[in-house]
Automatic annotation (TrEMBL):
Listed name of the protein: Phosphotransferase
Matches recorded under SUPFAM superfamilies: Protein kinase-like (PK-like)
InterPro entries, alphabetized: Kinase-like_dom_sf (IPR011009)
UniProt organism field: Streptomyces endophytica
Length: 254
């Protein structure tokens, strides 16, 4: 029998509250991003309506890219036009979207410590990429990996998991989707990545022309960052293709 609800549990009340605030912010400002109904907010849990759907696959990349572009453009028009990428964004007094760069600097240094970067020169290269990425209009990041989309039999797309939502440049969460699709299902041909970027830019530009300007070079920077940031998860969560496959794909399409 299909359950009617899904309950996600959190380690602390603060993490549950943050996820609930993120859910509400997305529902208000990123309306194209459809989410399951949030039915109960507990002290350390959130309960949602159950969605019977499959996770995203490579064949969904074009439609998901358009959805992300539309959602990012809508959020910029509604709220994030006032945000700065290097500053936390406070939509209201009891909620916060972390800044783009600071938490990722910490993560990249951790990757060096754990052996996912070969030396300090490689770390410096990644930090330089991160620094030059922190400009332009602000969108958001919500970890758009394939597991965080549910696609129903009739093609309706639901976005799930609001644990980690931050301010981010346009195109950054699209790069996370591409990276994790590659890690899950294998290489995506360069024309497929180009088509996804065009679809994303076209959807974002409908909200304001300046929002549809993510270049292939800039997307390549984001892909390189995600390759390092997601490297520890290879072999877990359905990521069957590890760092070597990822690096080869990025080098072949940058």
């Amino acid at each position: 029998m299909t359950p009617f609800h899904f309950t996600k549990h959190y380690e602390t009340p603060a993490k549950a509250a943050a996820a609930a605030h993120h859910y509400g912010w997305l529902a208000t400002h990123a309306k194209p991003l459809r989410q399951p109904a949030l039915t109960v907010v507990g002290p350390t849990s959130l309960t949602f309506e159950h969605i019977d759907g499959r996770h995203a696959q490579k064949k969904d990349l074009l439609s998901l890219a358009a959805l992300l572009g539309d959602a990012h453009g809508a959020a910029w028009a509604s709220d994030l036009h006032a945000a700065q990428l290097d500053m936390p964004h406070e939509p209201r007094k009891d909620s916060l979207l972390p800044a783009f760069r600071s938490c990722r600097e910490v993560a990249l240094r951790n990757r060096l410590e754990k052996g996912f970067l070969p030396d300090t020169a490689a770390l410096h290269a990644m930090l330089t990429l991160l620094e030059r990425s922190a400009d332009g209009p602000a969108a958001f990041y919500k970890d758009s990996n394939p597991r965080n989309f549910l696609i129903t039999e009739d093609g309706t797309i639901f976005s799930v998991d609001t644990d980690d939502v931050t301010v981010a440049p346009f195109g950054y969460d699209l790069a996370k989707l591409i990276t994790t699709l590659i890690m899950t299902h294998g290489p995506i041909d360069p024309p497929g990545i180009e088509a996804a970027l065009n679809s994303y830019n076209h959807a974002a530009a409908r909200h304001d022309a300046q929002l549809g300007a993510t270049s292939r070079e800039r997307l390549g920077d984001f892909l390189a960052l995600h390759a390092v940031l997601t490297a520890p998860y290879a072999g877990r969560h359905g990521y069957h293709y590890g760092w070597l496959h990822q690096r080869q794909q990025i080098q072949g399409t940058s």
